[in-house]
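Researcher: I need the complex structure. Ligand is magnesium ion. Inputs:
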Amino acid sequence: MKITNIQTKILKAPLKTPFVTSLRRVYALEDLVVIIKCDNGSIGYGEGAPTPQITGETMGAMVATIEYIKPHLIGREIEDFDALIGLIHTLIVKNTTAKSALEIALYDLKAKSQKLPLYRMLGGTQNTFRTDITISMGEIDKMISDCHAAVALGYDTLKIKIGDNPSKDVERVTAIYKALDKNIKLRLDANQGWSPKESVALLHALEKQDIIAEFIEQPVAADDIEGLKYIKERVQTPLLADESIFSLSDARRLLEMQAIDYVNIKLAKTAGISQALKLADLSKSFGVKCMIGCMLEGPISVAAGIHVASAKADIITMLDLDAVSLLSSHPVETSIAFNESEIVLSDAVGLGVKYTGNTPNFN
Ligand SMILES: [Mg+2]
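Model: Output:
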């Protein structure tokens, strides 16, 4: 099964409502689909969303990276899978989202060649999952009404985006907590918005009111490893690292320092599925559970994340894979059921998705 062509297409999809974090405000999804064709007619799909604020990649950078790697993959056999994955990682450093998109397409092809759903090929059995949904940062009344709307759709776990103003953040979380039933779990994500001292003061202010979130995600700058450790030693609320962990060595350092409670795995940070699986194994060796998350991205790469969650279901116990539910439409046929908080994998071979190539009008 020889690779004969690799194409990229820009996928555009409108969001139901703007997506707002302490790092950015986004009105529509624009990401990159990778399509790998083989001589037997088999097609593999991959995808990744450029998120310059987090991975440093623009759309142009992603396209250029894939064009750079492409001639090294064309003419090669899918059966040389490990060598192909190795090539992607050795030809160029960083550029993690572009590499992930390529890897996802190769895994799709390999699973199709074995006539297996990807999660089965990776050793997974679980096919039904529950995800949280992200509540964008904003004014308190709007955040509370968004929370109520999410609960009405069946979500029992809400990821609250905060981080632009520590005192307002305490007000936001307190008001949201009081407005919701106590069986609704809150995850907090500050996207690097606070200093270590602000983090401790803010979390203490919440903890004094018995508001203990399932975790606080990435309160401080990605490279402030000592800051994470400082916070972990002083608060009850569990600490999850997101932007601080791209590579296995990033994770190993934090895990050895016992600076965090949980790891957020995202394919766009690990440069694809192969390293995500290893990151889950590494976390497990330290007894640390993982969440699998996504960028604001489309159904193909979110599907890949769900297959990885199934493969490592014993250690990836939390899902933050709501991106498909944030889109009002998208040009991807999928056999995966995205029913808001519930996601169900099918027995379709590979990822179980197909890019239909129609770019919707949303201007
Ligand atoms: Mg995050």
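Model: Summary of the prediction. The chain is about 40% helix and 25% strand.
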